[in-house]
Amino acid sequence: MTETMETTDTTGSRGSRLLGVVTLLGLATLLLFAFALTEPDVRLHPTTGQEIGQFDAVRLLYLHVPLAVFTYVAFVLCAVASAGYLVKRTAWFDTMAYAAAEVGTVFCGLVLVTGSIWGRPVWNTWWEWGDVRLMTTLVLFLMFTGYLALRRATVDPRASARRGAVVALVAVLDLPIVNRSVEWWENRTLHQKSTLGELKIQDLTLFTLMLGFLVLGLVLAWLLLHRFRVGWLEREDAGHGVATAIAERRADIDEGDVDAAVGEGA
Amino acid sequence: MTHLGYLIAGWGIALGVLAAYAASIVRRGRDLARRVPVGRSRWLTSPGEDA
Questions:
Q1: Interface TM-score (ipTM) > 0.90
Q2: What is the least distance, in Å, from the CA of B19 to any CA of chain A?
Q3: A124-138, A199-213, B22-36: lowest mean pLDDT where?
Q4: Coil/strand/helix, residue A55
């Protein structure tokens, strides 16, 4: 049976287009708050009266911290979907795990880059090899980069999905270590403990950070949605290609039979 | 504004990478969508079959 070959040229839907517009508006609003409406971090030294603080470098807070949090979210989602795949063995779980791993790895890379750029004016260093949070985050990034390489290198889709799921479940074990590293090894990190937990920031700074969480969450949702659809289409395209090849081969064989029959009769 | 170069680098790289990644996803999706019949590109539904 021949399938009707009606196609489209988009992965967008009404809902995802609306999500995209809201996300772009959110990004514009976040930029407005981060750069124009919030104040720089300037305090007076209690004894000398000298101005201290992060000054305008604090504006990287509204980007770096939400990126870090949504890196966690993406990798946890990848691990949950991977576990789901190992139990249910459905394409949906595998496609979701792969999408979450790829988007999470992009976010994780940006966490490292923006952290390094923020660290230079604040800590006077681009990178500190002895910092436990930096190193555990780098390990996390490398493990999920390995996950993506494994997925691309394995030809058999079932083996790729199965191996990927196992690697994701192992890699995600680093997440609680990254998160708690500043508590467990507080003398071996330049990072401070949770700013939000002790509410060291407030007013418009806190509001803008919350806005950053909302907007970066929307960015993650939009990317995940479309990356999932791309993964789904890749799977369908591969299946459709195989089905077409089988149909063509069958047609060739049928024609060959007819030719043979005609040849025998002649 | 202090540290302007760091701010531009940090925000610029992050937003630039996210925009480039989003564009690459859209481009890949468009290419694939042209090759797959509409009936097989229903979103977010599990086929309930083995991967």
A1: no
A2: 10
A3: A199-213
A4: strand
Contact: A117, B13; criterion CB under 8 Å: yes
Q: How far apart are the first and last CA of chain B?
A: 54
A30: exposed, middle or buried (C-beta count within 10 Å: 0-12, 13-18, 19+)? buried
Residue A9 lies in a domain: no
pLDDT tens-digit readout, B11-29: 999 999 999 999 999 999 9
Helix (H) or strand (E) holding A131: none
- Distance between CA atoms of residues B36 and B46, nearest Å: 17
Instruction: With beta carbons under 8 A apart, name residues in chain A contacting B45.
Output: 92
Helix axes A157-171, A132-153, angle to 10 degrees: 170
Residue A251 lies in a domain: no
Six-digit token pair at A147?
């996950």
Token pair for A28: 């514009």
Q: In which domain, by residue range, is A70 found?
A: 18-42+59-246
Alpha-helical runs (H) found in A124-202: 132-153, 157-171, 174-184
Contact in structure between A142 and A109 (CB atoms under 8 Å): no
pTM for the model: 0.88
Q: How many domains does chain A have?
A: 1
Strands A51-55 and A41-44: antiparallel
- pLDDT, averaged across chain A: 90
